[in-house]
Design goal:
single chain, about 220 residues, alpha/beta, TIM Barrel, 8-stranded parallel sheet, 8 strands, about 45% helix, globular
Length: about 220
């Protein structure tokens, strides 16, 4: 499978104009990415632009801090799912995770899952793994499995650092094939993207500005 079909092509910068968003979404469509991952305010635009293409729409929820209430997260999931997204990338309350408040963490995830699944929408849970220990990453992965999420995801791309081999390995080890894994943040070249694919991940979070370079790197590696 070509590398772009692993991409959730992130169009998430808060200062983007509507034209910049349009251009970034079109770039993802042109490179045949799996999905464009957009801000909630851009869902309608993205759904309209991606209709009839091979590219789906995903959106972020409670991004980038994850500190809304469980009820707030669930209410947003209901709104976004009803708009026609294929997947929701929610930020879990990683401050609660660091506090050992695991029941509260799971409640926030489970509410989003219930709301999204009612519309046939998948859920990815963003950990912000650079803020967590390996054991916390593994514990959070188990919670996501129990809550019925589809993916665990390392990072928002807005924290001190993004995906790491250590964090992704911890997720894969805990997952044991029961949930999919998505590294995100800091994936800017083909070598890094391929490294994670070879580890066995199922999707990659890639900033829209990195998509062309990674795809060109793949073509060069394959001698195309």
């Amino acid at each position: 499978m070509k590398i772009s079909r692993y991409f959730d092509h992130a169009v998430l910068k808060p200062n983007m104009t509507e034209q910049e968003v349009r251009d970034a979404i079109q770039l993802g469509i042109d490179y045949d990415v799996y999905s464009v991952c957009v801000r909630p305010c851009d869902i309608d635009l993205a759904v309209s632009m991606c209709k009839g293409t091979n590219t789906r729409v995903s959106c972020v929820l409670d991004f980038p801090h994850g500190d809304s209430t469980a009820e707030g997260k669930a209410a947003l999931a209901e709104q976004y799912a009803a708009k026609g997204v294929a997947e929701i990338d929610m930020v879990m309350n990683f401050g609660y995770a660091r506090s050992g408040k695991w029941d509260e963490v799971e409640a926030g995830i489970a509410g989003v899952v219930r709301a999204a699944k009612a519309h046939g929408v998948g859920v990815k849970v963003i950990f912000e793994s650079c803020c967590l220990t390996v054991e916390e990453i593994k514990k959070a992965t188990e919670l996501c499995i129990h809550a019925g999420a589809d993916f665990v995801k390392t990072s928002t791309g807005f924290a001190a650092s993004g995906a790491s081999v250590e964090a992704v390995a911890a997720m894969l080890e805990a997952a044991q094939g029961r949930i999919k894994v998505k590294p995100s943040g800091g994936i800017r070249d083909y070598e890094t993207a391929k490294k994670y694919v070879d580890m066995g991940v199922h999707r990659l979070g890639v900033g829209f500005g990195s998509t062309p370079g990674i795809c060109k790197g793949e073509a060069a590696a394959l001698g195309e």
